[in-house]
Specification:
single chain
C-alpha cells in the first residue's frame, strides 16, 4: 500500500469515527427534532453501507434491480416503520460487536508490540519491524507502535522510514514526545541539523521539565555539526597539499607497520605529536583512523601492561599519552573516540596505578583534560567505572610532586557531577573513610597542600545527604579530625597548618548537620577544641569554630554546661557586637542553645547585656534565623527574676509585636516572639498595659493563628 493510500485510509477511518459519534449523541438527545434527524441519518448510513456490500457481492451478475417493495399507498400503517426501538437495538448490537472487535484487535496489537520489543532487545531489528507492522495492521491509531518501529528503522539505518513513522505517530497524538525524540535522532543521522534542533525544541515546548534532556540532545546536534565542519575543512587542507596535513597521513601510514622495535614507534609518535598543532591536524588524525594504531599492535599494547615495563616500553607509553593529549585537547569528537576505544577504555584507569610516576602523571593530565568541560566529564562518567576513583585519587596526597595537585584538581572537577557523587557512595565506608582517617592522622608525612584540598573536597562531598550521613557516623573519622586540629593548633595565636585547619573545621561543620551517635559521644571533646580556637586571630577559624559549636552543643547538655563555665556566653556576646553576618548567625544560635538548657547561661546573658540592648537590636535583624534565635533567647532570659522590670521603658513590646505579626518564612520566628511577649507580660503587668496600648492582643491572636499554619 502506498503512503498516499495509507493516509487516505486513516483519514476515512477518523471521519467515520466522528460521524458515528455524532449519530449516537443525536439518538440519545432529548430534543425530538435532533433525535428524528439522527434516526434518518442513521438509516441513510446503514442503507448506504448495505448497498456497498451488495455491490461487492454482485460481480458478474445482472445488475438490473426490480423494486419489489410495496408502494406507500399499499402500506396499511407507517407507524411501525418509524418506531426507533428495533433500530436502536440493532445499533446497540452493532456497537457492541464493534467494541468486541476493537478490544480483540487491541489485545492482538499489544501482544505484537511486546513481541517486537522482545526482538528489539535481542538485536533482531528486522523482526521487530515486522512485529510492529503486524500490530499496526490490527490498530492504526497506536502511536507507540509507530515510534517503536521508527526506533527499529533507525537501528537499520533506514532513517527516512523512521521519520515517516514519527509523523504518523504525531497524527495520532500531536504531543507524543517519543515521536519528536526519534524524529530528531533520524534527522541528526541524515545531517539535517536544523530539523533535528526543531524536534528537540518542540519537546522542551511541550514539557519544560525535560530541559536537561533537551540540552543533551541539542549538544549532540552541535557536536555533530561541528564535526562535519571540521572534517570538511580538513579535506580542503589535504586537497591543497598543505605540508602538515600530508605529514599526518604519512606518519600514520608508517606507524601502521606491525612488529617494529618499540623505539621505532616512539620516534614516529613523537613526530606525529609535534605535527598535531591545531584543529585541522586533530581532525585528520581522526579521519585517517589514527586511533587504530593500537588495535592489533602487540608492541604498543605491551607498553600498557600493569607489570613493570622495560625502559623502551615506558617511553612508548609516555609518547602515546602525550599524543592523545595533543589530539584530544579541545576536540570533543576525538575525546569520545579515544574513551570508547575498547583497549583504552579498559587500560586507561590502570595508568593511575602504574609503578612509573611519569606514567601516572601523564595519565592524570589526560584525565584532567576531560574533566575541564561538562562534555568531557559526561564522557568519563558514561564510559568508565569511577566507583574507586575517590579512593585512588585521594592516595596521591601521600606524594610530594605535581601528581598530588593533578589528582586533587581532577577530583575537584568531578565532584560537581551528581553521578560521580552517587558512585562515591559505593566504596565510601569500606575504602575511602579508612584511607581519609589515615591521611588526617599523618599530616607531618603527607603533602599538606594536597591534604587541605582533599579535606575541602570531602567537605563539598558532604553536601550529598547519603555521604554526609556515612561520614557523620564514622567515629574514627571524627577522632582523626580532632587529632588534626590538635596538630594544627597548640594554643598560640597562629596555626601551624592554617589551610588544613580551616578545611577540617569546614568539614566538621558540614558533617555536624547530621545527628549521629558519634557526635553525641564526642560532643564534649569537640566543644573543648572549639573553645580553644576562639582565641585564634584567623577570622575563618573563629567563624567555623562557632558554627561547629552551634551544631554540636544541642546534642549534649553536659557540653553546654562545660562551655558556659569556660566563658562561652561572654565570648559570644563579644562576637555578636563586632561579628559579620555568618559569624553572628552562628553566635546567636550558640547563645540560644546555651540559654535553653543552662540557667547559668541565662543569668550571664542578663548580667552582660544591660537591659538586653544587644538582644533587642538583634530582634530587628534582616536575618530571620538571627531574629528568631534572639527572640528565643530573650524569652529564656525573662525567666531570670528582675529581667522584665529592667525592660520597662524600652521598645521591647513594640519590637516583639512587630516580629510576631511579621511575614517571616519560618513560623518559629513568630512563635518565639509571641512566647517572649507572653513571658514578659506574665512577669510584669505593666508590659500588659503597653501591649493593650499597641492593640497587641489582636496582633498576637493573628500571630498564633499564623504559627498553627506552619
Amino acid at each position: 500500500m502506498s503512503k498516499q493510500q495509507e493516509e487516505q485510509e486513516l483519514q476515512k477511518f477518523l471521519r467515520d469515527v466522528d460521524e458515528i459519534t455524532s449519530l449516537i449523541q443525536g439518538l440519545n438527545s432529548s430534543d425530538l427534532a435532533v433525535h428524528e434527524k439522527a434516526i434518518a441519518d442513521t438509516e441513510k448510513r446503514l442503507g448506504s453501507a448495505k448497498e456497498k456490500e451488495e455491490d461487492r457481492s454482485r460481480h458478474g451478475v445482472d445488475r438490473t434491480l426490480i423494486n419489489t417493495r410495496p408502494s406507500v399507498k399499499d402500506v396499511p400503517n407507517q407507524e411501525g416503520l418509524t418506531n426507533p426501538e428495533p433500530f436502536m437495538a440493532a445499533l446497540e448490537k452493532d456497537a457492541k460487536e464493534r467494541a468486541r472487535r476493537r478490544k480483540k484487535n487491541e489485545a492482538l496489537a499489544n501482544a505484537l508490540k511486546e513481541q517486537g520489543n522482545d526482538a528489539f532487545s535481542k538485536g533482531d531489528f528486522a523482526a521487530a519491524v515486522q512485529k510492529y507492522t503486524e500490530g499496526l495492521e490490527k490498530r492504526k491509531d497506536v502511536p507507540a507502535l509507530y515510534t517503536n518501529r521508527a526506533q527499529a528503522y533507525i537501528k537499520l539505518q533506514e532513517h527516512e522510514k523512521a521519520i515517516h513513522d514519527c509523523e504518523w505517530a504525531l497524527r495520532c497524538d500531536e504531543k507524543y514526545l517519543k515521536a519528536f525524540f526519534h524524529m530528531g535522532k533520524a534527522h541528526l543521522a541524515l545531517k539535517q541539523y536544523s530539523k533535528a534542533r526543531e524536534c528537540y525544541m518542540k519537546i522542551l515546548e511541550i514539557d519544560p521539565r525535560r530541559e536537561k534532556l533537551c540540552k543533551d540532545f541539542l549538544n549532540q546536534v552541535d557536536l555533530a555539526e561541528k564535526r562535519q565542519r571540521e572534517e570538511e575543512e580538513a579535506a580542503k587542507e589535504v586537497e591543497s597539499r598543505r605540508c602538515r596535513a600530508v605529514s599526518v597521513n604519512q606518519l600514520l601510514q608508517k606507524l601502521d607497520r606491525p612488529n617494529e622495535n618499540a623505539l621505532f614507534y616512539v620516534g614516529g609518535i613523537r613526530l606525529l605529536t609535534d605535527v598535531v598543532q591545531g584543529g585541522t591536524e586533530q581532525t585528520l588524525f581522526r579521519t585517517n583512523n589514527g586511533f587504530s594504531i593500537i588495535n592489533d599492535n602487540q608492541v604498543i599494547r605491551r607498553a600498557f601492561c600493569p607489570e613493570m615495563p622495560s625502559p623502551a616500553d615506558v617511553e612508548l607509553s609516555l609518547s602515546l599519552l602525550l599524543l592523545w593529549e595533543a589530539v584530544c585537547r579541545g576536540n570533543e569528537e576525538n575525546q569520545r573516540l579515544l574513551l570508547t576505544h575498547p583497549f583504552v577504555n579498559s587500560q586507561l584507569p590502570t595508568l593511575l596505578l602504574s609503578e612509573v610516576p611519569d606514567i601516572q602523571e601523564e595519565g592524570l593530565v589526560l584525565l584532567s583534560l576531560y574533566a575541564q568541560t561538562e562534555h568531557g566529564r559526561s564522557l568519563l562518567l558514561r564510559h568508565l567505572d569511577l566507583t574507586k576513583w575517590l579512593q585512588t585519587l585521594m592516595s596521591f596526597v601521600g606524594v610530594f610532586d605535581s601528581r598530588a595537585s593533578h589528582a586533587m584538581n581532577l577530583l575537584s572537577s568531578l565532584i560537581v557531577e551528581e553521578k560521580f557523587r552517587i558512585q562515591c557512595r559505593i566504596k565510601l565506608s569500606t575504602g575511602v573513610l579508612p584511607l581519609f582517617a589515615q591521611l588526617l592522622n599523618s599530616i607531618k608525612t603527607v603533602n599538606q597542600t594536597a591534604l587541605a584540598q582533599c579535606i575541602a573536597i570531602m567537605g563539598d562531598l558532604c553536601s550529598d545527604t547519603v555521604i554526609r550521613m556515612q561520614v557523620a557516623e564514622s567515629q574514627d573519622g571524627w577522632q582523626a579530625c580532632l587529632n588534626l586540629v590538635d596538630e594544627c593548633w597548640s594554643g598560640s595565636k597562629a596555626a601551624r597548618y592554617p589551610a588544613c585547619l580551616q578545611a577540617v573545621l569546614g568539614l566538621m561543620v558540614n558533617c555536624s548537620l547530621e545527628p549521629s551517635s558519634a557526635i553525641q559521644e564526642l560532643a564534649e571533646e569537640i566543644s573543648r577544641r572549639c573553645m580553644g580556637l576562639l582565641s585564634s586571630q584567623d577570622g575563618t577559624v573563629v567563624t567555623r569554630a562557632i558554627g561547629l559549636l552551634s551544631h554540636i552543643l544541642p546534642a549534649s547538655p553536659a557540653a553546654v554546661e562545660e562551655a558556659v563555665k569556660q566563658g562561652l556566653v561572654k565570648k559570644m556576646i563579644g562576637v555578636l557586637k563586632v561579628g559579620g553576618q555568618i559569624t553572628s548567625g552562628y553566635a546567636m544560635k550558640t547563645l540560644a542553645v546555651c540559654s535553653k538548657s543552662s540557667r547559668q547561661a541565662q543569668k550571664e546573658i542578663v548580667k552582660l547585656d544591660k537591659k538586653c540592648s544587644l538582644l533587642l537590636k538583634l530582634l530587628c535583624s534582616n536575618d530571620e534565623a538571627v531574629a528568631g534565635n534572639a527572640a528565643f533567647c530573650l524569652g529564656r532570659c525573662l525567666e531570670v527574676p528582675g529581667t522584665a522590670m529592667n525592660l520597662l521603658g524600652t521598645d521591647v513590646v513594640k519590637t516583639l509585636l512587630k516580629l510576631a505579626g511579621g511575614d517571616a518564612q519560618k513560623g518559629s520566628v513568630q512563635e518565639n516572639a509571641a512566647i517572649a511577649i507572653g513571658k514578659l507580660c506574665a512577669a510584669d503587668a505593666r508590659h500588659t498595659s503597653r501591649l493593650r496600648e499597641l492593640n497587641g492582643m489582636a496582633i498576637l491572636s493573628s500571630s498564633v493563628k499564623h504559627v498553627k499554619e506552619f
